[in-house]
Amino acid sequence: MRLALLVAAAALAASPALAAVPEKGEGTITLLGGARVLFPGNGSYLDEQGAAHKLFQPGGIASFGYQYDDELHVRIDVGYLYDRYRIAGGDLVVKTIPIMFGLDTALLKGAAFTLYGGGGVGYLLNTGSRSGVNNEANSTGGYLALGLRLRLTPLVGVVIEDRIIISSAAVDAQSQQRLNVGGNLLSLGLMFHFLQPDDKGHPQAP
User: Fold this and answer.
1) Is 9 helix (H, G, I), strand (E, B) or coil?
2) How far apart are CA 134 and CA 93, in angstroms?
3) Sequence-separated contacts (24+) of 197-205 with Cβ below 8 Å
4) What are the tens digits of pLDDT across the range 106-158?
5) How far apart are CA 146 and CA 133, in angstroms?
6) Strand partners, 156
């Protein structure tokens, strides 16, 4: 995935010159959705409970950011991660809401694209539900991300992001095992970037 992002960015470098995505001073709203892989997995828990678990689980992120300068983009991310373990006598469903404060920086910029890397820390609100019993087991965590933003229109961009979230919690009230509630989230979505209210717009060529 990381190699694919680098190849796509290099291919765009020869396009007609446009500003990077987003530009300095712009606010951003990014909506991402995709598939999550729990790596490393929860093998000890699966063996203990005789559980089955699908490799891919859904997840999504809503990000609110600001492009502070030409390189630095600060952001607050709020997400939703869903996970289900098939267990005889009652499945375990884990719902996680990550709230993360982070930043990313441009690794490579070109015509209408930005390849970026970033990371952050925050809090994960985890709820495990099994046999009608809900168990809250919140946790702290962090993430690392590599992504590519492509300009679609002057105010909209396409975003591809590969994010690794690191966090664990004892979400099953019937087990002492701590489960990985983070994982590797590969997502695709849209970024809406806009000028600050006091800006008059981008300079136009005569």
Assistant:
1) helix
2) 9
3) 199/25, 202/19, 202/23
4) 999 988 899 999 999 999 999 999 999 999 999 999 999 999 999 999 899 99
5) 37
6) 153, 192
Query: What is the per-residue pLDDT across 53-109, written as a single tens digit (0 to 9) for each?
Result: 999 999 999 999 999 998 999 999 999 999 999 999 899 999 999 999 999 999 999
Q: Which amino acid is at 48?
A: E
Closest CA to 21 of 170, 187, 194, 173: 194
Q: Rounded to whole angstroms, how far apart are CA atoms 173 and 11?
A: 50
Model's pTM, two decimal places?
Answer: 0.85
Mode of pairing for the β-strands spanning 72-86 and 139-153 = unpaired
Query: Distance between CA atoms of 163 and 60, rounded to whole angstroms?
Result: 11
pLDDT digits (tens, 9 = 90+) for 150-199: 999 989 999 999 999 999 999 999 999 999 999 999 999 999 999 865 55
Exposed, middle or buried: residue 187 (CB in 10 Å: 0-12, 13-18, 19+)?
buried
Between the CA atoms of 5, 6, 8 and 13, what dihedral angle is there, to the nearest 10 degrees? 140
